[in-house]
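1st attempt posting a full record on here, be nice pls
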Amino acid sequence: MKIIKNRNTTGRPAKKTDEKKNYKMTVKMASDEYDALKAKAHEAGINQSEYTRQCIQASIVKQRITPELMNYIRQLSGMANNINQIAHKANAAGYMGVHKHCLFLNGKLDDVISKIEDDC
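the predicted structure (as tokens):
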């Protein structure tokens, strides 16, 4: 076995471990989606992989609606229905008869809306 002492070291320097691309991902696309990706990457002047990486870095993912938030929205919808019924009663019987009930529901609506705002 021969040992090469004067090895050529003028090649490309090794990348640092944080610069290496260690993971490969396969994505299935329809023809129109793939054509759009190719066109956008070409327009940006970069290859498709780099375009996809930049899209991932710049994207913002919104959280799904939690069951708790969905419950608040359902309550809000029910309260809106109740207010509609109060409006019908107020038109039929006069406003003074339903004034207290309307104030109570307004307070409940404010509570639900503040809970929804806290979750978002």
